[in-house]
Structures are given as C-alpha cells and as structure tokens.
Amino acid sequence: MDVEMKIRGLMVDPSTNTPVVILKDLKTETVLPIWVGPYEANAIQMEVVKASALRPLTHDLLKNVVQGLNAQVQRVVVSELRGDTFYAVIWMEQNGEIVAIDARPSDALALALRADCPIFVSEEVLLAAKVVPSAPEAQPNEQDLRRWLEGLGDEDMGKYKM
Q1: CATH number of the domain bearing residue 124
Q2: Alpha carbons 104 and 71: distance in angstroms, whole number
Q3: pLDDT digits (tens, 9 = 90+) for 19-50
Q4: Is 155 part of a structural domain of the chain?
Q5: Dist. CA 142–CA 24, nearest whole Å
Q6: Which of 82, 126, 127, 141 has a CB 3.0–4.6 Å from the CB of 135, allowing a cystine?
Q7: pTM score, whole prediction
C-alpha cells in the first residue's frame, strides 16, 4: 500500500552538508528524509518557491516532453529502498495506456511538483527506512537526525532553504 505524502521542505543535513528533501505523510506526523544532490535540490526548491529560469531546465524539459507526447503524469511513488538507495517510479498515462518509468526519487519529485501530481511512498519503504544502522556515537547518526527532523516546527523550515 502506498502512503500519500507532500514535500514539507528542504534543508541541509548538518552532519554531511548534503541537501535533504523532507516528505511528510498527509495524515500523520511521519516524515521521510531523502538525501538528494545539490542540482536536484535546486530544481525542487525552484518549483517550491515558483521561481522560473529564463530557459527550461532539465525537469521543465521533461514536463514539456511528457506534454508534447500527449501524456500526463498521474503520480510518483518512492517504491523501494535497497541498501541506502531509494528508487522511484513515475506513473504516466498516454492514450489510455498506463506507463511506469523508473526514476531517481529526486527527479521524480521535481517532476511531480511541475506536473502537480500526487507523491506517494510505499509502506515497505517507510518501514525499511526506520531500520537504520547506527553510526559511531562520536557523530550524529541517521536516527538522531530523524528525531531532529520529526521535531521541526513550521518556524524551523524556513531556516534551511537551499
């Protein structure tokens, strides 16, 4: 079963200086942090704040290609977690046919924002993401970061924009 989520915000992981997209369950307080690259984080942030570039960027181009092929993005699903890597699927419809496209979650999320379609995370991913091996106590581990992320309030989210 898939759980509908929304992008709650973007921040930088204080221990690695890596951008993190924060997904939040629409019905509960569950959050899922997904570490992404800086370019993908920038593409997501631009759409979150509704900024536009002079020329189409990669995810804008992808949206234009989908539209040019008379297709529609129906939903994106963060579908798997293998090791430390998340996987996603972009579900599209073209001429009544449903097509599933493998994608990196960061690209799927950037496209979902542009296509104004729902974002889902599989229940299996949410369960697996909670089982994180501990790092040495000298550095904050992923469980500590998760607790910190879950404790963020609305006033905190603006502090960490990309």
Answers
A1: 3.10.690.10
A2: 20
A3: 999 999 999 888 999 999 999 999 999 999 99
A4: no
A5: 17
A6: 141
A7: 0.79
